[in-house]
Amino acid sequence: MKYFLGIDVGSSKTHALIVNETGACIGFGKAWGGNHQGVGYDGLERVLKESLGAAIEMAGVETAHIAGAGFGIAGYDFPSDREAHLQAILTLGLSCPIEIVNDGVNGLLAGATRGIGVNVTSGSSNNCRGRNKDGKEGRIVGNGAAFGEYGGAIEIVQRGLQMVNYAWIKRIPPTTLTKIFMEAVGAIDELDLMDGLSSEQYHLYPFLALEVIKAAHEGDDAACEVLRWSGEELGWLAVSVARQIEMENDEVEIIQSGSVFDAGVIITDPMREIVMKHLPKAKLIRLDGPPVVGAVILGMEQACFDGYAVRENIIRTAKEIVK
Asked: 35, 124, 139, 153: least surrounded by Cβ within 10 Å?
């Protein structure tokens, strides 16, 4: 029996999954986020070891039994990052062939037919990766607002803050977001909020996006505008990458992965409008299963094993143990 490993390293969490050649998931481990930009390479090593250790223990196998391993890692953005990431993985003591990709590729491998199409990730931040049938790859920078790439939780929070400011300076009508943001940091009024954020005494975190989404569902106009904007921006990410891989006139699969898509039509409808305007044959698909499945399939590829032949079983059994 052959065994395969996939590790999905995100900015907020890390998942490790061990699968056998039938696609049955037999081992799972988790740890905190391991993006080196936030925790350093020492932190990346720790979460890799912690998550793999738990998966190995559950599976009852040894690292020597693993035939191939795939790693989708947040923060692995450029070729110049490769060597340092490989050195971190080397500490795991694996003897099998491995490959590393940006974690934005995980959703593509897990959700698209044969890994062909575009994956748009909206989690703590945003990312977008694509690949066509000839192997041509497309991408965005993946480093958020500084490069004009929006749509993840932190960008939703930042846009929400702008709406709070607009209400304070009377550019727009009052919004319930004002109370939400003040309570989130403990500000006594709008002036205190702006002062505290400007002086970095107060800090806003991605989880506050959940409150913005809730306010939008409750009908707050400013929150609704934030979610529409976010959805449109995610749509533009998909369009841009589809153009790079020359699939704008094809029946390109657009995979939607990440927790922000749990907001539902309030974000997916505006995304769909942008996508279908520019990619008229596109098919939008919500990722059905954890992204770590994509890392497993990548690991299977390294061992020349067709992971897509057993993908449905990987997804089905992964849902049972990935928590």
From this structure: 139
